[in-house]
Amino acid sequence: MCRLSTKPFYKLLVLLSLLILTGCAAAKQPIFLSSTFGKERIERIHVLPVVDLRFNKEPELPKLNKWILGTVKSSLKRKKYTFTIVSDTSLVGNITEEDLQTVDAEWVKDLGPTGSRWVMVIALLDAKSKLTFGSTGNAEVAGYLFDRMDGSIVWRDKGIGSVGQGGLIGMFLKGLMIGDAINMATSDLMRSFPDNEV
Amino acid sequence: MDTLKKEIHIFAGTAMRVLVLSAVAPLLTLLLLSSCASTSQHISSSSEKKATYIAHEKIIIMPAVLKYVSISNDAPLPPATYKGEEAGAFLVSYSSELLSKKGFSVLNAKALSSEDSKFRKAYNEILGERISLFRSSSNPDLTEDMKVLAESSNNAGILIFMLRVKVGPSGTWNPYTGAITSSSSYTRLKALLVETGSGRKLWKNEVQLREIPAPESHGYKDAVKLLLENLKTDKGGQSVQIIN
Q1: A133 vs B30: CB contact, 8 Å cut-off?
Q2: Which residues of B touch A169 (CB under 8 A)?
Q3: ipTM computed for the complex
Q4: Separation of CA B158 from chain center
């Protein structure tokens, strides 16, 4: 009798936990998503090399493209997009944060390789690591998807990564903090990029 | 027996001292190292040390563009919450003081506006569009206004500032897991000098400060100083001349 009465409560508890977990894992809302997104099939996204907009660009991050574009690639694959990773860094050489903040249609039309339409730009805005009694890492990444056909912005969002560990162990892990923060920020950024459902 | 007790006491005391010292010394070393080891300095400048000599010693300083945003989603935040207006006013007044000491003549835009309606109109147009001057592409809409400004001010250059403040969460410490995070707020102070006659960008500089700027903060004052450090008149000199 007792077993019978507790069973529904147990089921309810499991259901509630699942609901809470689903809520936590849900895709986040991007800063901007065009109302036209999803109405037309995106044939191929051209992902440009990462724009390093860090101040002074210190420390040098030779693995920056690998870290960020690795996460972007697996996210786009999971979301069923066809994409090309562009390696020509001259395409992003002159981009400033102001260019990305207020987008000019003519500027967008000149962005990316010839023949491309959907162009994705990922910018690293800030990354730092700090040694205290432990060590911390912070990163700020911004992402944009442009439609070169009409010079419009289709998707825009930001990702933040903040990691750290206290104590002696944390102090010895300082070298890993920047990379971890950048990976965390990129994963956070890509959470709001919609699935390819067309 | 007493001597033995004394020996044991001395030995125990020495052993304890060695133990404490061996534990404290590396800790102190690490703490000392931690105070100076960071991949990002508190204040850093993007310019090289080399000075830029500007032939236009007459300068009009415009009110600073204040951009306070949340670091997580770029949502605009009211500058008043962070004493933004005060920080902007300090930037202009302190720069005026620093540039005057370097031999520049800092023109009073208010006085010129009240005397000359053409100047006022052009100045207000540029004031509303000054953020566009920070972009890599030029703004052709401002060409005429720039020329008016050049005529009315005897070719004074215009100095524009931008305070882009990103406000993020403060540092945290989780006593259960030992996880820590540090504050992510930072400020970028940008300065741009434009030649009014041609609309050409003569000089620009940028300084990053890892805090929210406050007029009373030494860090902010040093950041402004660093921002203008390499801007010099081609005549040099230390004469103070403020034209009202």
Answers
A1: yes
A2: 178
A3: 0.76
A4: 18
